[in-house]
Design a protein that fits this description.
Blueprint: H1 14-24, E1 31-32, H2 49-61, H3 73-84, H4 89-92, E2 96-101, H5 103-118, E3 124-128, H6 132-140, E4 145-149, E5 151-152, E6 157-158, H7 160-169, E7 175-179, H8 192-205, E8 208-213, H9 223-226, H10 228-235, E9 241-245, E10 258-263, H11 267-285, H12 290-301, H13 303-333, H14 341-345, E11 350-352, H15 357-367, E12 369-370, E13 376-378, H16 387-398
Helix pairs in contact: 2-12, 2-13, 3-12, 5-6, 5-11, 7-8, 8-10, 12-13, 13-16, 15-16
Residues 36, 103-105, 131, 179, 184, 212, 214, 245, 247, 253, 258 line the site of 4'-deoxy-4'-aminopyridoxal-5'-phosphate.
Keywords: Aminotransferase, Pyridoxal phosphate, Transferase
EC number: 2.6.1.1
Pfam families: Aminotran_1_2 (PF00155)
Length: 399
Amino acid sequence: SLCFHGIEPAPKDPILGVTEAFLADESPHKVNVGVGAYRDDNGKPVVLECVREAERRIAGNLNMEYLPMGGSIDMIEESLKLAYGENSEYIKDKKIAAVQALSGTGACRLFADFQKRFLPDSQIYIPVPTWANHHNIWRDARVPQRTYHYYHPESKGLDFASLMDDIKNAPNGSFFLLHACAHNPTGVDPSEEEWREISYQFKVKGHFPFFDMAYQGFASGDPERDAKAIRIFLEDGHLIGCAQSYAKNMGLYGQRVGCLSVLCEDDKQAVAVKSQLQQLARPMYSNPPVHGALVVSIILKDPNLKSLWLKEVEGMADRIIGMRTALRENLEKLGSPLSWEHITNQIGMFCYSGMTPEQVDRLTNEFHIYMTRNGRISMAGVTTHNVQYLANAIHEVTK
Ligand code: PMP
């Protein structure tokens, strides 16, 4: 007989739990700086104009047939140009194995499964801290995990020396998960010079970099600039893996559209790797969803829509950068003796505030402000209407 009765409920997801608690709160002052999704200055979700236009074109013309197993060829081609560069010789030489993936999460998972199937003895090095789901993904793919130093709590910046030591001390040929830009949850990225040193050391050690690029364009406002780390590794002649997501930079969160790519030694290897990635996807979901892929390829293939998109990404990034300045200035105006420089030094969607779990609890219980207990503030939830209230509350619990 079936015996499901012994099954305990799974632990609550810490991030989704925050939203639940926020929704249940009836205070008019409540603020949600937990979610990792962009909001406009009125706290409302945003659908980009370029996306609306692409959807009009889809509604007028296109069918809903299955995509090929590897996903939309057009979407993949445009994604590779964004990550590897418009004129990348690797694209021309067909050295990149790439498939459409179920957004960034699905791209990471497919890669983890690939790693397990073809390099069963390999491990993955993951930064401390990281997006919590990275641990779940590689755990469920049964790839052993190691960690490497990344964040330096005292400086609220990068622990570069320890990071480099960990790279040097890892066995030759190790797999490393790197956040390509706008590191989640810390908002701390290596500088260009530091990336060059990291890339150099990877070369010495023969490590394989797997870039999770969930925020291309969200860090600086310019997707080209945000691809800098990847381009440095490419210049240095590495083979790389890359997970791309259109959740944030096109606001396509629920459409689940992304791309997994693996730069191979030659075109023959790329054909083999792509076919194996498809083989992994086939028994899981057969083929990826069509709507988001159409939206992305329509936007990126039309120069006018693409430039509209670039303007809109920049607009989102700029609003966040503006809110960083406003939050810091408000804290300083209130006379906080603490340094809040890291709010404006960090980039991307998140600010790793340095607040303790107890301080976060006070923000929630006394001020109806919701966020994860690691002190991560989603800057996307900060607006001109709530920034002063937020600064005041942070000041109260940190003084
Ligand atoms: N990687 C990182 C670092 C992220 O922060 C996220 C989104 N929270 C993702 C991947 C994946 O997001 P999605 O699956 O929605 O593209």
